[in-house]
Design a protein that fits this description.
By secondary structure, this protein is mainly α. It has a domain of 92 residues: Winged helix-like DNA-binding domain superfamily/Winged helix DNA-binding domain (Arc Repressor Mutant, subunit A). The chain has a three-stranded antiparallel sheet with strand order 3-5-4. Strand 4 and strand 5 form a beta hairpin. Helix 2 packs across helix 6, helix 3 packs across helix 4 and helix 3 crosses helix 6.
């Protein structure tokens, strides 16, 4: 691991003794800095994994997002909204993604078998064939990534991530609207 990454992740060495000027201009030690940069670790792992998945899926002509939508649509009769929720996509991104998949002949919107007012997403034969190939490639990427861990640690790691993302780190989702500015009070 490059030294700059190691320095970014672990803060239990000389950085804990760094001096920073306080409001009076005098240097003071940094107080109680976290031992690790958890945000960086999770972000770096997510970014690197997404890049590796993108590379593995590129010659199939689909993105990671399109793979995710195809996968969720293949699991059963689901509406666009249900797939968007499962894939953590906002409605606009879901529509754009489905439009692209339909245009390439990989997916189609159909009338629901249980509610004629609802539209569900179905895969074409070509979409199923692409998804079958994608499953293998995604599994290979996951195997390489998790292969860095000893076998006993893999299950613990995955279970810990599941626990975090269904618990304390479940919300807000990256698809939840975030207010960047305070709303001005009406007078």
């Amino acid at each position: 691991m490059p030294q700059f990454l190691r320095d970014r992740i672990v803060h239990n060495g000389p950085q804990r003794d760094c001096l920073w000027p306080d409001s009076s201009g005098y240097a003071r030690p940094v107080a109680d800095a976290p031992e690790i940069d958890l945000s960086f670790l999770l972000n770096q792992a997510s970014y690197a994994l997404a890049a590796q998945l993108g590379g593995a899926l590129a010659d199939l002509g689909i993105s990671v997002r399109e793979y995710c939508v195809l996968w969720k649509a293949a699991d059963g009769e689901r509406t666009q909204i249900e797939i968007a929720e499962l894939a953590a996509l906002d409605k606009t991104t879901m529509v754009v993604t489905l439009d692209a998949l339909e245009k390439r002949g990989l997916a189609r919107r159909e009338v629901s078998s249980t509610d004629r007012r609802a539209r569900v997403v179905g895969l074409t034969d070509e979409g199923r064939a692409v998804l079958d190939k994608a499953y293998g490639r995604v599994s290979d990427v996951y195997e390489v990534a998790l292969g860095e861990l000893p076998p006993r640690t893999r299950d613990t790691f995955v279970k810990a991530l599941e626990s975090l993302t269904t618990g304390v780190l479940a919300t807000p989702s990256h698809t939840a609207p975030q207010r960047r500015r305070q709303v001005k009070a009406m007078r």
